[in-house]
Amino acid sequence: MGKRCRHLRGSMMLELFIASGLSVMVIALLVATELSALREYQRALSRNTAGRNAYNALREIRGIAQQAVQASVNGSGTQAVLLLPQRDASGAIRVPVQPDIANPITLTVDFSAGTLTMTTGEGSRVLLRGLSNRTPQGAFYSPFTLTQYAPGVQALHVRLSIVQGSGATTATAWFEETIFLRNTISP
Questions:
Q1: Segments making up each domain of the chain, as ranges
Q2: Three-class secondary structure of residue 147 per DSSP
Q3: CB neighbourhood size of 38 (10 A)
Q4: 9 has pLDDT over 70
Q5: What is the pTM of this model?
Q6: Of 11, 91, 105, 24, which Cα lies nearest the Cα of 61?
Q7: d(Cα 118, Cα 179) in Å, to the nearest integer?
Q8: Residue 92 and residue 38: Cα distance in Å, rounded?
Q9: Burial class, 98, CB count within 10 angstroms (exposed 0-12 / middle 13-18 / buried 19+)
Q10: Using CA atoms, how far apart are residues 106 and 80, in angstroms rounded to an integer?
Q11: CB 39 within 8 A of CB 169
Q12: Based on the number of CB atoms within 10 Å of its own CB, is 183 exposed (0-12), middle (13-18) or buried (19 or more)?
């Protein structure tokens, strides 16, 4: 009888080791799945942050550009200058409409710093961070271009490639907007 108990005891110990090993493997798989889900969540969060920041910057640029009476873009396409109409002391637009050359609004993309900066008479402010000089497909691009469609009708094309996050959670987003400048006059 003593022999039989010892055999059963060893068999139970073997079952315990096998069950423990299987439990460890299942837990390892669950942890790996959870880490993968967390990385994907971080990537999605980076994409959402990039989208929200770009949307806010483009909305502000659009609001100013649609008021502009004169616009110009430098040769490399990294700087756009917008001139709003002159206003009198009460804030009304002076007639005939003339550009306010004393208070230009300058939009500058600095790829080395990864920033889009707006400079006005009140100072400079960074509208967007994380800019890249390449599209998500890897091509170089010009952030600003200006196209004349008809007398008094120009379009300012704004293109932005934004990189958010780092390492495995890096997300690159491409934003492009065409803003029609209906009130422009020739310089």
A1: 2-181
A2: strand
A3: 11
A4: no
A5: 0.75
A6: 105
A7: 17
A8: 53
A9: middle
A10: 6
A11: yes
A12: middle
Give tens-digit pLDDT for 121-174. Answer: 889 999 999 999 998 888 999 999 999 888 778 899 999 998 877 776 677 889
Would you give the DSSP letter of residue 114? T
Residue 165: both structure tokens together: 């996050």
pLDDT per residue over 65-109, tens digit each? 988 999 999 999 999 999 999 989 998 888 888 889 999 999 999
Residue 16 and residue 4: Cα distance in Å, rounded?
A: 19
Of 100, 54, 81, residue with least CA distance to 181: 81
CA-CA-CA-CA torsion for 53, 58, 64, 67, nearest 10 degrees?
A: -150
> Would you state the structure tokens that stand for residue 117, as one six-digit string?
């900066």
